[in-house]
Structures are given as C-alpha cells and as structure tokens.
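call fold(seq) -> tokens
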Amino acid sequence: MKSIVTLAIVAFLGMTTVQAQKVANAPVQKEQVSQIDMLAQKLNLTAEQKANVAKTLTGFKATEDRLKASNMNATDKQAALDKVASRKNGNLKTYLTDEQYAMYVKLTQL
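ret:
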C-alpha cells in the first residue's frame, strides 16, 4: 500500500513539473509562430519558403538566446550576435527572392 501511495505522489510531482515546463515554453513558441505568419503574409511566401524560413528563424533564435544569456562582455556579445544575424540573413537569402529579401530587411529594421 505504501508503494502505491509513493508511486502516485511521484507521478503527480512528475506531471506538475512537465506541465510547468510546457507553460514556460509556450510564449516563446507562440511569439515565433506569429512572427513567421506575419512574414509569410507580408512577403507572400510559398509553403516551401515558409517552412524553410520557420526552420531558419527557430534554429537561430535558440543560438541568439543562448548568446544573450551568456556571461560574455558586451562588445564580444554584440560581435557574436552580429555574426549570427549575418549567417541567419545569408540562410534566409537562399530561400527568398531578391524582392522578398529586401522587404524582409526593411521589416526587421523597423
């Protein structure tokens, strides 16, 4: 009987931990999705372009967040973020037409 009660308590604690993690990640994912949807609408992206842009933005967002949270000095951190942004823009340029990329740059500088 004790083992059943202990098992139930451990399962309950495990479920609450998992639920707390899902809630904490939800705003970031929702923000990322709304940005991708906005870009898809403004740039008239095809389904393939939207998937590639989403994959690129999501992948680089994690790197940018990790750099922002790092203990680097401000100058090094900014240089690293600029390098990541340059790589991200290079990747996006391969998926977008010249007109779409020009509009993307214009939208992201606002």
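Confidence is low (pLDDT under 50) at residues 20-28.
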